[in-house]
Amino acid sequence: MQCPICGYLLNDLDADCPRCLALGARGIDPPTTAQSDSRAAARPSRTALSATSKIVILMGIFAIAIIVTLSLRGATDTYTPPPPPPSAATLTGGDTVLFAKAQALAAAHSSPTGVIWSLEDCAQLVQDKVALGMSFDEVEYVYGKPDKDNCDTSNSGTRDQFVYVGDSSGNDYLYFENLRLTTIQIDGRVLGRRLLRKAQHGHAGDDETIEMQAESDAATAVARQDDAALRALEDANHKSEQKLANDEKAWNDAVIRRDLGDASAQKTVDEYRQKITDDEK
Length: 281
Hints:
- By secondary structure, the chain is α+β, with helices and mostly antiparallel strands.
- The chain has nine helices and four strands, in the order ααααααββββααα.
- It has three domains: 44-76; 88-208, Beta-lactamase Inhibitory Protein, Chain:B, domain 1, CATH 3.30.1450; 213-280, no CATH class.
- It has a four-stranded antiparallel sheet with strand order 1-2-3-4, with no helix packed on it.
- Strand 2 and strand 3 (172-177) form a beta hairpin.
- Helix 8 runs antiparallel to helix 9.
- The longest helix has 53 residues, at 207-259.
């Protein structure tokens, strides 16, 4: 049934029109004033429904805006590739020999039970360079053991001072905190001289160590010279014995020819007799 005033299609439960609020639109007696007031209080107001709808619409628009923003941000982000692996070009200036040495040094100190030397640190070490953050062993690989190690332990950690004693020019100092190099103090020229010794002798030892190494090298050279002289003497003796054997054979051949009536063989016999005498001296 339709409302006779606004034409709204009424259902079976509508006594009056919910659109135009016409009373008795179905032909039912209009309710009393008290009944109308109770129905009006129970029916949601059109104003309240409109406010709720607005809130729902605004929330939907806000959600759509967030989704669109996130989608655009993901589309505009650029891919950042990971950094390239260490290479000779980046660590040793393109020197493949030094890079190979650095790789071998890093492999030799890659045990999980010890202090691991990074490939970047090893590239510095093979060039006789140290860097802040290196460990005791890495620094000693370049400069050798210090003359003194002053250690101080407190609640904040451990501090070490490596002292490389020099002459009148002063000492050089390396400072560590919690076993890592933090400061390099060059007052003398000790570390520079140690690097020079390392280039000459293969290690950066102190004066006493270098002197002992020099004495050992000299003794080794003498021993090698003695071995060479002994081999030369043995070679000379062998040659003398071989010459004597050849002369004796030639003398015997000449004697046989002389005994067979060759008069000219006597001269050869006398000649080789003299040679044999000289060989035996």
